[in-house]
Write a structure and sequence with these properties.
323 residues, Transferase(Phosphotransferase), domain 1, 8 helices, 14% strand, binds adenosine-5'-triphosphate, binds magnesium ion
Length: 323
């Protein structure tokens, strides 16, 4: 999937006309499909760009940084698709400088139906089907840890959250999950290690953080947060805790059971410790607290930079996230 020159220019025009503080007031009509912690996902309403999802990453200071990221991103996609066997939507990327001369990286993916995205689907599917979806997700995740176990040179990380998985060919009138193909969309954080060395420059994640928090984030969280994605047990806790965030706490006891049946059953050879409901609840409380604190600190930072210092603020912040 490659964008034509004309469409690339359209995307550049979108970037030029984008007001990061009010993305809905963009010169080119666009819709936010999702907010990540570091990226914003757009659908852009222009001939040639329809049907695509654009993930905007405004993290880079110079071309060397963005080139490094591009290589790490491309290899992560290859590892997932070719070596591990996880399906990704058709994808591409584009890079160009914004008005201030900073490179902006866009991940481009085929746009998938919102109903098919895990966190939407869990509100529509029956309880049994949701649990099948969780099992199917675990089966996809398992491929990553099987790969990591097969050899020890390259270790790959993945974020198992339900909002990162999409049911291919989902039909809401006749939803089928058992034999459905799942696709993974969240490739913007390409974490993988070669002989223990992280290939992604994780300092990039601290870029969007207020400068007055960077040192404490680096000290307390960065290593722990990154390590989490290499640990199947913790990825499963995160997946289960997601059901709190997605307002389906009622399902958590069943989800925990599905996870543990999986770890002690078909994935037994991986030797993963079972998870507990307490672990899920404690983790959620801590995680929700940290992220809401973090978001409010970013809003303070945005206020300081735009209102007090009269400068630019390049990041797009979500309004209140329902937790
Ligand atoms: N290809 C796509 N088609 C339609 N919607 C998408 C697509 N990719 C992402 N989205 C929507 O945007 C949301 C965030 O996307 P994604 O997980 O890739 O972003 P992210 O910045 O990596 O987020 P985070 O790391 O915080 O999970 C998804 O949960 C989904 O709702
Ligand atoms: Mg995500």
């Amino acid at each position: 999937m490659a964008l034509s020159q004309a469409n690339l220019e359209l995307l550049q025009a979108f970037e030029r006309g984008l007001d990061p503080q009010h993305p809905e007031r963009s010169q080119m009509p666009a819709r936010v499909l999702g907010y990540g912690e570091i990226s914003t996902v757009f659908a852009i309403d222009a001939e040639g760009l329809r049907g695509l999802a654009f993930k905007r990453l405004p993290l880079f200071y110079n071309s060397a940084e963005v080139e490094k990221y591009q290589a790490v991103y491309a290899e992560y996609n290859r590892l997932l698709e070719t070596e591990i066997g996880i399906r990704l939507p058709a994808h591409d990327y584009a890079v160009f400088a914004n008005a201030a001369g900073r490179p902006i990286f866009y991940i481009i993916q085929k746009q998938l139906s919102p109903d098919a995205i895990g966190n939407r689907a869990i509100h529509r599917l029956s309880r049994e089907m949701v649990l099948v979806l969780v099992k199917r997700t675990l089966q996809e995740l398992r491929k990553v840890w099987e790969f990591n176990r097969r050899q020890n040179r390259v270790q790959v990380a993945i974020d198992g959250q339900i909002s990162n998985w999409v049911i291919d060919g989902f039909n809401s009138a006749n939803p089928r999950v058992e034999d459905a193909a799942l696709m993974y969309v969240d490739t913007s954080t390409p974490l993988w290690r070669v002989n223990g060395v992280e290939q992604l420059d994780t300092e990039l994640f601290l870029r969007s953080a207020p400068s007055f928090l960077v040192w404490i984030l680096r000290l307390l969280f960065l290593k722990d947060v990154v390590n989490r994605y290499y640990d199947f047990h913790r990825v499963a806790v995160d997946l289960a805790a997601n059901f709190h965030k997605e307002q389906r706490s009622d399902l958590i006891p069943d989800v925990v059971k599905v996870v543990n049946d999986f770890f002690t059953g078909e994935a037994m050879t991986l030797g993963i410790q079972p998870i507990t409901q307490k672990e899920v609840n404690d983790y959620y409380q801590e995680d929700a607290f940290i992220w809401s604190l973090y978001l409010s600190m970013r809003k303070v930072d945005r206020f300081l930079r735009t209102q007090v210092l009269r400068g630019q603020y390049p990041y797009i912040l979500p309004e209140k996230i329902k937790r």
